[in-house]
Structures are given as C-alpha cells and as structure tokens.
Amino acid sequence: MIGMGLLEAIPESTLLGFADENDTNKDGISGKLNYVHDVASNSKKIGRFGWKANQSNVRQQVAAAFLGDMGIITSLFPNENAPFGVDLTAIANGGTPEISDINFERVVLYSSTLAVPARRNYAKQSVLKGKKTFETIGCASCHIPKIKTGSNHFIAALRNQTIRPYTDLLRHDMGADLADNTPDLKPQE
Ligand code: HEC
Description:
Layout: H1 4-8, H2 12-18, E1 35-38, E2 43-46, H3 58-70, H4 101-113, H5 125-136, E3 147-148, E4 162-163
Helix pairs in contact: 3-4
Bound molecules: heme C (HEC).
C-alpha cells in the first residue's frame, strides 16, 4: 500500500525509457509495458497497479478493489459483479453508488499518500556492500533503485520527488519456474 501515488507520479516518458521488449540494448533483460483500458478517460493508458500492471491509476485500482474484493459499487464501477448464481435482489442494497464520491475520494487520497518509511542503516558498511552486490549481479536492472517523479501529478506533494521504488513497472517473463500462470485480468468495464 505504501508509495502508490509516487508510482503513479512517475512520468510515462521514464517508463517508456525502461521498456525494452526485445532486449535491443542487449543487457540480457527484456520487459514490456502493459497498456490497459483507463475507465475515467475511456482511453488506453500504461498499467501500473495490480498483479500484472492491469490498472492504470490508484483511483481505478481502489474502485476495482471495492467492487471485486468487497462488492461495493462506486461511481467509477457502478455495476455489481455478483458471483455466478447469486441473486442480487435477495441481498440488501447499499444504494447507488454504495460509497459516496467524497468517501471514495478520501480512500483514494489515503491510498495515494500513505508514506514510505525512511530508509534504515543506509550508511552502514554491510548495507552498502549489499547495495553493491545488488547492482553488480543485475538485480537493479529490473528493480530500479532510484527514480524521479514528474512535475504534474494532481497531488502536489508527490511531484518532483526522488524515490526508491525498486521496480520498473514493466512486465517480465521470469521463466517457467516463477510463472504462476495467472491469466491477465482486464479491468472491469
Ligand atoms: C528480469 C527482471 C528481474 C530481475 C533481474 C530481478 N528481479 Fe526480482 N522481481 C522481478 C519481478 C517481475 C518480481 C515480481 C514477481 C511477481 O510478483 O510475480 C520480482 C520480485 C522480487 C522480490 C519479491 C518482492 C516482493 O515484494 O514480493 C524480491 C525480494 C526480488 N525480486 C529480489 C531480486 C533480487 C535480489 C534480484 C537479483 C538477484 C532480482 N530480484 C532480480 C523481476 C526481476
């Protein structure tokens, strides 16, 4: 949950710079962006959240979680998705939408701004040694240690921040041994 808004504030151009689907730079690492349907703008956007980068922003991720995990409809996802065979008319209805826009936006704000804890012991010799190993054996090629957020996120506090996300927000083929074969989930439309 931490740092979500900061990941959202990474400029698209930065992510396009990371993407290298066919390993054209020959560093042994390939990774691609997921382009997904952004419901609010009704357009294709870079996916950043969810198991396989299938939600474009925190707001949509939160609305999808309300709907999918708790069965609560929002103005973004106004249609119930009852499990097969469940008769919704037999179940108490919480209104339309079931969470007011103001409360929904509060959850989005909370989810976007929950702070990342400060780094610990980063000047310690053993930590620095680990940092170096992490970089030299190639972990940092995918787990990008340092990124700068852009200057136009709608939450001012998230702009122009140097962050340490340890992700490139790309999808990587991690090989058969790490594949869980989860099909890619399309955001509810
Ligand atoms: C090819 C890109 C790539 C490289 C290189 C890579 N990782 Fe990862 N790593 C991933 C991906 C993708 C995931 C997420 C897998 C998932 O959630 O299914 C991950 C997950 C992890 C996690 C779990 C994080 C969590 O929150 O559960 C750790 C820890 C980790 N990697 C450490 C390392 C270390 C240490 C190295 C270097 C030895 C390394 N990784 C190299 C892509 C990479």
